[in-house]
Amino acid sequence: MYQKWQYWNTASRKWLWILVAVGLLASIPVIADRVKTESSSKKVEIVFDYRDLTEAASYQAHPQDYLNEQLDRLQQAGVNSMAMYESTLDDFRKAGRVVTYTTQNVADMEKRLSPANENFTYIVFADKENAEALKPLILRTFTSLDINVKPWTYQGQEGLVVETSPEDAYLKPMQPDPIAMKQLRSKGFFIVPRMSDSLPYNQELTEEMLASFQQNGVKRILFEGDSVKGFTDNEKEHSLAAFAKLLNKYDIGLAAIENLKKPQAGFNKLAYDIHYNVVRLYSLSDKDATLDVETLADRFALATKDRNIRMLYLNTAPSRSIAEAKVKDSVDNLIHSLDKPGNAVQRMEKKGFELGQAEPFQVVDSSIQRYLKMIVVLGALAFFSIMVSYFVPALTLLAFALGLVGSAGLYVLNSSLMEQGLALLAAISGPTVAMIIAVRTIRIKREQGTELSVGQRLIQTLILYVQTAILSLAAVPFVIALLNSIAYSLVLNQFRGVSLLHILPIFLAAIYIFFYRGVSIREEISKLLRTPITVLWVIALAVIAAAGYYYLTRTGNAGTVSNTELVFRNFLENAFGVRPRNKEFLMAHPLFIAGAFLALKYRKAIYLLIIAAIGQASMVDTFAHIHSPAALSLSRGLLGLGFGLVLGIIAIVVWQVLEGCWKKWSPQLKR
Known about the structure:
This protein is α/β, with parallel strands linked by helices. Helices cover 61% and strands 10% of the residues. Strands 1-2-7-8-9-10-11 form a 7-stranded parallel barrel. Strands 3-4-6-5 form a 4-stranded antiparallel beta sheet. A two-stranded antiparallel ribbon has the order 12-13. The chain starts with a helix and ends with a helix.
């Protein structure tokens, strides 16, 4: 019975490979849909923080002149939008639109005693224009909060009395300053309002605000704080659904800020309810705004090209320069990063982007995509089962059967988790299977007993290099097809378990190389356990641990790089239009070629392929960053393979020279 079971497990591998091939074919239309989706939005919106600009202007001798001058310069440089925060009474006071008084101030001005039990806010409008624009806004805001407001005049100037303390009145947010908005629109800027969730949600006021936004050409809003508008009251009022209906009614979308420490609460639900009318936004901090012009230009260009960013948000802040004895800001630096020849705007336009109001991706979703994904699921499970078969052949069919049952269960509970789980299994299986087949091929060639010439070893190595890369990249269509959702592209949903993809293929390749040598695994483990631990072993383990830690710190979005490497990366980007991963073409790929070449002659050289597995896993990991365009990820991987091939051949030539020198001189050294 056991032998029959073994036979069926062994025989099933052929059918599993067929399923993998069918899954790959089924993924092609799904990949085509994603590529079409990614090419549907090419407009880039450059947004400047208007509050930052007005603060910087306040430090100048002539604030209004400075503000107007910088607005004109920013527009000429390519900035086409201004971000405006919700206004407060304090903002209107600082802008000179109103003058505020306390109860005591008014009593002093009128030369009377201040009422003992009154602490109100008295407002006087600067002129008739300000009164017409701001009076209705102030009235609606405070009355909606059940704060009484009544008319008041002072020396013939129109005003209001808000029956709450100035400290409290200053905190109440209102819609963005309508007068400033009008002025910015007259200069040709688009408006990107920033909304908060600080007050109880009011559907009537929110609709009035969005209607005003639509009249001013607003197409996208940005949230301020830790949550979206309406989130706090959602449990009782279902305010997120109500807000989403208004956004759809007035055709206003959202901007998702990249790399927030914590997603804004309620954003994902709101995005879903407005049918993902969302674009990704890169925010440059006021601190980073002082970086050199070339670095800033690189950041902006790479954000749009590499990460599907369609909004760039610029901040600035005044700072005191003791060396120059003046107050400075970074506006000039930002302008130069955009408009200097060869910098951000030109580089973006060269890649096919144009300046304008950012547009969401138009999702291409073929009617047969759901059925094709079912086939892809079977292919991913087959790929995983093939990987299992190389380690525990008796579990091949069981792994496939359990995978089917588990996938069905996960689909019912959480279809997104099922897709991510299968994508991860396929991503791990591809490079692992590729490395195992490479190791097996080398061992078979060496065990044939025929010594290969240098040319034959080189040809076999190059064939193996191409074959291994193809098998590793075979995992990519499964990852793309299974995670083909706009939620992943916008990073509203993230591919979990990427850390396992960084580690497991390398670990599994090492396990196979150490313990699967054609003899009993038990004997290999027993032999390893009996091996005496020497100082050399300890040093080797310490080096491996340090290398592993360095590898993990360099991997993923949180990876850190040196300034020297940043310069090198920028050189590659500028020279080739896309930057291959350094760990692939500088280390892993050349090491694969050199290791395979040496292992065809020297048995212990096979251990070099453990480190070389990093390159195979890294190629697949590139495509696990769903927010990067698939075509760009493919270019990056192929370029890395090409450069790695060149460096690998150079390494072989160097080895051959050194080996020849050793053979020639070593007999003389022994004399």
